[in-house]
Design a protein that fits this description.
Blueprint lengths: L7 E5 L7 E6 L6 H5 L10 E6 L21 H20 L6 E6 L1 H12 L6 E5 L21 E7 L7 H13 L3 E7 L8 H15 L1
Helix pairs in contact: 2-3
Length: about 210
């Protein structure tokens, strides 16, 4: 899977009117259009929502817990695609990273977290719904930089069939160590989905950024 030159679709505020942005990263088997539907829950008039489309509707072929080499070039080119969107927002939209939010579900949550960990700085927020940092337990986690108190929201089930609870806990620790303000919410018995409490938590995060 190679995500170079993959399309990015958008909705929300137009260039010149947008002062904030959210990059929305879909999960395995889904689409940019499907993750953008979640933006209807937020309806921020000054926010542009951008969603990249993964090649073959998946960011990488194996579990996110597999050795990273088995999921290349999907991981690297997916991270590069996210980086190119951020660069475009900064250079052509005039939106700084502290007003850019990363949101992902499932595979998209893993990619969002891995991007942020590898590129630690102040963002508007990082929102990972049913995901964790990428790679097996033995993966070095010597991420550099500081999140500079970026709000990070991690929501997941305690029995998610794709995301083990210890990996959510590890992701929380990693981002706390990177100087992020982490909110972790674990939902008992929830299937692999997004729930209303998570949506409310994202709304709160967005409102906090605007105060």
């Amino acid at each position: 899977m190679n995500h170079n030159d993959q399309p990015v679709i958008k909705t929300g505020a137009e260039k010149g009117a947008a002062t904030t942005a959210m990059i929305m990263i879909h999960g395995r088997g889904a689409s940019a259009e499907s993750i953008l539907e979640l933006s209807e829950e937020f309806k921020k008039q000054d926010m542009v929502y951008l969603a990249p489309q993964a090649s073959g509707h998946a960011w990488y072929p194996e579990s996110f817990l597999a050795p990273i080499a088995q999921n290349e070039p999907g991981i690297s080119t997916g991270i590069a695609l996210v980086g190119s969107i951020i660069a475009d927002l900064e250079n052509n939209w005039g939106i700084s990273t502290d007003q850019i939010f990363l949101l992902g579900f499932s595979q998209g949550a893993c990619l969002a977290l891995e991007y942020a960990a590898r590129n630690a700085k102040r963002y508007g927020g990082v929102i990972a719904l049913s995901g964790g940092v990428i790679g097996p337990d033995s993966t070095p986690r010597d991420y550099a930089g500081s999140m500079e108190q970026t709000p990070v929201f991690l929501g997941c089930s305690d029995v998610d069939s794709h995301v083990p609870l210890p990996r959510v806990k590890l992701s929380t620790k990693i981002f706390k160590d990177l100087n992020a303000e982490v909110t972790e919410r674990i939902y008992l018995g929830m299937p692999h989905t997004v729930n209303q409490d998570e949506i409310n938590g994202i709304r709160d995060l967005l409102d906090l950024n605007r105060n």
